[in-house]
Amino acid sequence: MELIDLKINQDEEIFSSFYEINQQQVPKVGSLSLEEFINLIEISNISYGIVKKGTCLGFVICLRENTNYQSINYKFFQKRHNKFFYIDRIAIDNKFQSCGIGSTFYDKLISIKHKFNIPICAEVNIDPPNELSINFHKKHGFVEITESTIKEGYSVVYVEVT
Question: Domain range holding 33?
Fold first, then answer.
């Protein structure tokens, strides 16, 4: 498996493959157009993908504070912290889930967190439920901050590791 930096490796075919993984994982992650997905990578501070033998397996996209990003969830952490990393989305292809790919990303992010000494923040769906993600975040030291109902049928729990 190879960890690639999507900010540097701006290959249209790779972006399309990671975009397909994003769409496969809706509603666990938000649906985007390909243009919105590419723009999200462009405004991100950290975007990694994992590729194995030319196959895209999963990705993570993170933003720092003071990014021009209109997500309600991002804005929650913007009000809460002066400095932070926000995990906007992590998505692993269905065929490769529970293979350690998510942990590879989070181990990398937590090492960056230690380097900069700032919290890593995220939200996890609780409606529709995403129990696997809640347990995954707990395993990596994230603690629940509060819950929020964004709209009917869509509620999240805000988590962070400090």
Answer: 2-161
